[in-house]
Design a protein that fits this description.
globular, Glutaredoxin, about 240 residues, alpha+beta, four-stranded mixed sheet, 4 strands, 9 helices
Length: about 240
């Protein structure tokens, strides 16, 4: 069963929601049958492709017309929530950047079965390490750390690979009426918006999976012969 997640690396709630969803998934007994697919969403596509050099505090202050002290106070509660989940949000260091190329890297990594891993690396680079995730060298470093070849990441960046896939994700979000992230879609039947508690993800997984399993039953075998076997309880006695 597929779970699609619309997300943006600039979004702290996406980082928090990812961890809560993953905790629910870890405890889900049939998690081997769940496929998580990351979808692209841009909170601010108007940002320059080259890093702005301003921090989240400065960006929010300018965008909302608030004093820096007010912005810091506004984000304190979220930072505390994240810390309780083992997540660090360094808003004072996080560099605001256009996330389009980062989404392209997600598509590349996802083809290699590394979607969850690259999302985590991008969130950490942005929120923890204060790196510019629009910078080609940062994206290459992240890709290589996951086992991708530097050449294939550079080719992706230079040749415009996965640009169409990112645009299609964004267009699909618009058709679905998705206006904010994170947004989780379970088997194209149920949706969870926002960084909900782990229990909400667990309940939705159970409900969506039960219906999906009815539509996709496990194969039934007829045993035509039995013989000696090894099993976990009796070993090979």
């Amino acid at each position: 069963m597929k779970v699609e997640i619309w997300s943006d690396v600039m979004c702290p709630f996406c980082y928090l929601g990812k961890h809560r969803y993953e905790k629910a998934l870890e405890e889900f007994p049939d998690r081997a049958y769940i496929q998580t697919e990351w979808k692209s969403f841009q909170l601010d596509p108007t940002l320059p492709k080259k890093g702005s050099g301003i921090t989240t505090y400065e960006y929010l202050s300018e965008r909302k017309g608030m004093h820096l002290s007010q912005v810091k106070q506004m984000t304190e509660g979220l930072s505390a929530q994240a810390a309780a989940e083992g997540i660090t949000l360094n808003f004072g260091q996080a560099v605001i950047a256009n996330s389009f190329d980062a989404h392209r890297l997600v598509h590349l990594a996802q083809e290699k079965g590394l979607g969850n891993e690259v999302e985590e690396k991008l969130f950490m680079a942005h929120f923890v390490d204060g790196k510019d995730v629009s910078d080609a060298s940062v994206l290459t470093e992240i890709g290589v750390s996951l086992g991708l070849k530097a050449e294939e990441v550079q080719d992706m960046l230079e040749k415009g690979l996965y640009e169409q896939e990112v645009k299609e994700d964004i267009q699909l979000a618009a058709r679905f009426g998705i206006r904010g992230v994170p947004f989780f879609v379970f088997n194209r039947k149920y949706a969870v918006s926002g960084a909900q508690p782990k229990e909400v993800f667990a309940q939705t997984l159970e409900k969506a999976y039960a219906e999906w399993r009815q539509e996709n039953p496990l194969p039934a075998f007829t045993t035509v012969a039995e013989g000696p076997v090894c099993d976990p309880e009796t070993a090979c006695e």
